[in-house]
Design goal:
399 residues; 4 domains; five-stranded mixed sheet; two-stranded antiparallel ribbon; 59% helix; 10% strand
């Protein structure tokens, strides 16, 4: 609404546009407005005339549009207030999806409180029951899905993860990176791992670390398959080979190398302190020969430790080159070449700290992923999972 009368507004504009010298001052005294306000009224009046001549919307049309939008806004607010609440089925779906994405019950309740009207949010216990029910339903569906995928899963990567000290025995199919098995406890023994492998009778290759429980689990699963095949007529045993993963081998190697560098750094600090003691003894005029001898011994030991650390860095590079899929010349790596490189690389690894690394690198299962080792795999055979040819060897092309 206008805060100034129309006749006063028009008079102020006419005074500015048509008045003589001094007319604006006299007009300001008559109507009680400042000269700046009168000039502003004239400017707005001129702009209104220009807009009207350019064919813009009239004031009546704009006012009608404003009234219509206000009525529509009020209707929308009324519809939102009286709208039906989110159905319980959708709330259950929301809670189950949030739990599957890793949200806690508290976070799910917080999000439900945002989208639901005040006071209509379900209790924490109710949401917990929804999540538990969805978990049971998903477990039943996963059991059926596992049976449908048994023929497709031929290799598994096995390892343990922990939730509040409870081991989760997990298996991942390496080609698709699908997490196909996760058994909660009760422990990491061979019997527990055998239960995991029993659900995948078509698996022929297993990749894992050198854990005793895993190794025993594979052995028990292999014996169980042999026993089951003996009880069936014209049935062949599905082979089950175990290879060691490269990750744990390299991590153990890095652990020893890190210890070597830490020992060299500590000895370097000791040698530096010995030099400082020599300087203090000379500054005070004391006999520094004994302290100097101790400093020279400390520096010789620091140099020896540093050389050992540098040498181990070279071993790490050579081992990584031997375990790579491709050789430095660009050719596909094979077991014979990798074994020769590992034998040369492990020669300088002496001492008890290298015991586990030497055992892992000398274990024939470490190189099972290379093509050269596939000649030792079983020939094609007909099993309950179907006919599967043995993989071809890269260097010779044989099967």
């Amino acid at each position: 609404m206008l805060s100034v009368a129309v006749n006063i507004w028009i008079g102020n504009a006419a005074t500015v546009l048509c008045g003589r010298w001094g007319a604006v001052t006299r007009r300001a005294r008559e109507v009680g407005y400042s000269r700046t306000a009168i000039y502003h009224h004239a400017q707005r009046g001129t702009q209104a005339v220009v807009n009207e001549q350019e064919g813009g919307g009239s004031a009546e049309a704009l006012w009608a549009e404003n009234t219509r939008l206000r009525a529509e806004n009020a209707a929308l607010w009324e519809a939102w207030v009286t709208a039906e609440q989110l159905p319980e089925s959708k709330q259950q779906e929301f809670a189950a999806t949030g739990s599957a994405m890793g949200l806690s019950l508290g976070q799910i309740l917080l999000l439900l409180a945002i989208i639901l009207p005040k006071g209509s949010t379900s209790s924490r216990a109710t949401v917990g029951r929804w999540v538990a029910q969805a978990s049971r339903q998903a477990g039943g569906l996963l059991a059926v899905l596992d049976q449908c995928c048994q023929r497709l899963v031929l290799a598994l990567c096995l390892d343990e993860i922990f939730f509040h000290r409870m081991p989760i025995l997990m298996a991942v199919e390496p080609h698709s990176m699908a997490w196909v098995a996760a058994q909660r406890g009760p422990d990491r023994s061979g019997e527990s791992w055998c239960q995991v492998l029993a659900k995948w009778p078509c698996v022929t290759r297993v990749v894992a670390d050198a854990g005793k429980g895993l190794e025993r689990g594979v052995k028990l699963a292999r014996e169980a398959r042999r026993t089951a095949a003996e009880g069936q007529e014209n049935a062949a045993t599905v082979p089950l080979q175990m290879g060691l993963d490269v990750f744990h081998t390299q991590r153990e190697l890095q652990r020893v190398v890190h210890g070597k560098w830490q020992r060299a750094e500590r000895q370097l600090e000791t040698a530096t302190e010995a030099d400082h003691k020599v300087a203090q003894s000379k500054q005070r005029g004391h006999d520094a020969r004994g302290v100097a001898q101790h400093a020279r011994t400390a520096w010789r030991k620091a140099e020896r430790y540093f050389d050992e650390a540098v040498q181990t860095e070279g071993v790490v590079s050579r081992v990584a080159m031997a375990l790579a899929v491709f050789r430095p010349d660009g050719k596909l790596n094979d077991r014979a070449w990798a074994q020769a490189q590992l034998q040369e690389a492990t020669k300088p690894l002496t001492g008890p700290e290298w015991g586990k690394v030497r055992r892992l690198l000398s274990d024939e299962r470490t190189l099972y992923y290379l093509v050269g080792c596939m000649n030792n795999w079983p020939r094609p055979l007909r099993t309950r999972c179907g006919v599967r040819p043995a993989p071809a060897c890269g260097p010779c092309g044989r099967q």
